């Protein structure tokens, strides 16, 4: 039996996620869209905190909410005149997209609910020292069986490539 | 009432559906990128939730999410750079108008 | 001089070709010409050395029992396909090869020297393509020398093609003139058609005899020098017949057709008059003295086989006799000096062919064995003398053309006063070809006539008549050019004798034309290598001189001074004159056969089939592919969102299928 606070928190978060997701893709002002995305990302961070993954939540806020959304806002302001609405999407296109999305949700939802007892699993306790910063740091840089050094290095190479790519793209010709 | 696995998956699924819808209907490239971020985020949630419920002693899903966030950040930065560059050349960001290279 | 120097004789022109052809562009034009002349001079000295050594020098295996033998200097394998099928490239010296070495190198040297002057304009500047010209001359000389020293049929075929190629290149030397281009194509195509038959003949002959080698063809594979063995090769094919004739007759006739193409025998002569579009020295070298006698040489080379096949000999005889008359008749009315000389050449070559063919008079090997073969000797002798005086005549013509800038004799007239040296040289050439003693043509033509009279009275009379016509048309040309009426000077320069580079060859060749008749050919170039004892047949000689004098007298009467007689005769026999002037419509006949008959009835339907069916099929394939591609390119429209739809449908279908499978 969960604590009531936890339940309320969950419902608030779920509501924010659902509403803001829908608003993100339906609003006609692109800057608002980015703002709603920010709310969704914050709500996601709350879920991570709820899962006891405090570090991940911090990363979510710092990188996603703090970094990516700011990038989005910059890009939007560079390419759009503020206050100007986007054109109304034609209805056939909208209907078609809605059907496709609903179909996807339906299929996946059916899948979820048909595995109801598997999905109805309870949240288990985890060891207190399982997700400390210390453990995460060790895992990230270890070469053991469960170490993540290789993906870590791969990501760093990828980021380097992105930096170079960004420089090349942004360079004035 | 318990918070089951399903209860976290449903908002994630809705978020994903919104992402698909946005991706398919929007013309603005930045809006498409935002939709893409929604989908990525929903997948991230799934990773974390599955990890937490099914294998509470391990951290695999969490690390995947960590890396996914890193990659998403890089990809978004690059994609936005490209979009801005395209805008500088063509003064447009709508994909249905960027048809100069089409047959 | 060792006979192996023959290799150098052949190799030097080849090296000169590569050197002048590759390095000539970088060099001064005059320098290339001088280098070409020097190279040719060395070749000539070596060729004379080798040939004289062969005839008169110390024994190097060329004499056995007083009979001249063929000496194979070298004969390496060139292409060995199988154990038995080997093509060799070698050098063989025998009397006719040695004689041809002299003829080719002499004329070629004269032409090389002459071209130094001829291929320049009046200010002494060399023409465009001067280096190319000398490179091609060297190539031609190499090919012709390689042809005459060939050891086997296949080698001779290869060099036959090469002389054809060099001839093509040199006729088309002025490639900017459409007439020259057409003439070169015509020469190439006609001779190629003839060479097809030559190749067929070679294949038939070597299939039945099992060898390409002349020595083995003539003397059998064991190399014994006896005529009985000579038949061994032929005996193996004795039973084989095709369409009622023996296979050997077919093979030899085909080979003769190949030779007839090169030697411009009727009806394959049509290319030679047009070939006069090339530079005049080239006409002198290729189309008067050397290449056109390649066919005669070929028949002479295979003479021991032809002797046995009387049928093939008869064909040659009739062809030759007819061509001689036909060409002489046309030569009588031509107004273009080079064309007239070209028809004269055809006629004279036909003399040689006829002479070869009558050589087997009365059939029978025994008689030939016992000292007949006069015709063969006469033919080769005439080949030699004719090369000299015809080259002389052409070079004179070149000098005249160079002076007056026209080929038409209406532009010439009365040049004797302006060009005395050329005039005398031309006169000597005319006297030589007309057969006036003591000039060269008398001796050789007389022997040809003797041989013809031995074959039969009719042949002799016919050829004597042609000889008379020869005298007439040659002096007609001479008088029209140098006398007739006073020359009207059209250009600011009055025509005059040309520079020494052009005059010297004329003097040398004129001298040779005077004395060449005294060369003891009858004990040098006989078909079996034995000496042939002949003496002047005074009856025949007297008659032929008389006929020649009549011809000359007639020409003098008609053409020495301007008068009305030629025009009257032309008006009187206008139809005949027109026909002869138009070469008896042979070119029109060819045009009709090729364009109207072959192109219309064979090529057009084939072309239509090709265009409609073959091309149509591939066009159909292409258009089907194209339209299919055009249709499905809509799938790849570059819109990411439509791709996502497709992807989504696929992914959902996969998910549904998976779930259905799991739940059931």
Describe, in plain words, how this protein is organized in 3D.
The complex is a heterotrimer of chains A (173), B (103) and C (664). Chain A has 7 helices and no strands. By secondary structure, chain A is mainly α. Chain A has 2 domains: 1-88, NADH-ubiquinone/plastoquinone oxidoreductase chain 6, subunit NuoJ (Four Helix Bundle (Hemerythrin (Met), subunit A)), CATH 1.20.120.1200; 126-173, no CATH class. The longest helix of chain A has 26 residues, at 54-79. Chain B is elongated, with a radius of gyration of 17 Å. Chain B has one domain (5-90): Helix Hairpins. Chain C is mainly α and 664 residues long. Helices cover 70% and strands 3% of the residues of chain C. In chain C, strands 1-2 form a two-stranded antiparallel sheet. Chain C has a two-stranded antiparallel ribbon with strand order 3-6. In chain C, strands 4-5 form a two-stranded antiparallel ribbon. The chains are: A mainly alpha (173), B mainly alpha (103), C mainly alpha (664). At the A-B interface, helix 1, helix 2, helix 3, helix 4 and helix 5 of A face helix 1, helix 2 and helix 3 of B.
Radius of gyration of chain A: 21 Å
Number of strands of chain A: 0
Which architecture of the largest domain in chain A does the CATH hierarchy give at level 2? Up-down Bundle
Q: Indicate the mean pLDDT of chain A.
A: 86
Query: Helical stretch count of chain C?
Result: 27
Which chains share the greatest interface?
Answer: A-B, 85 and 70 residues
Blueprint (SSEs and pairs):
The complex is a heterotrimer of chains A (173), B (103) and C (664).
Chain A: H1 4-26, H2 30-50, H3 54-79, H4 91-114, H5 116-119, H6 133-141, H7 149-170
Chain B: H1 5-25, H2 29-54, H3 60-90
Helix pairs in contact in B: 1-2, 2-3
Chain C: H1 6-23, H2 29-56, E1 63-64, E2 67-68, E3 71-74, E4 77-80, E5 86-88, E6 91-93, H3 95-118, H4 130-148, H5 153-171, H6 178-209, H7 214-219, H8 227-230, H9 232-236, E7 241-242, E8 245-246, H10 247-263, H11 271-274, H12 280-289, H13 294-301, H14 303-308, H15 310-331, H16 337-358, H17 365-369, H18 374-404, H19 420-434, H20 440-455, H21 457-482, H22 500-515, H23 538-559, H24 565-572, H25 574-581, H26 586-632, H27 640-663
Antiparallel strand pairs in C: 1-2, 3-6, 4-5, 7-8
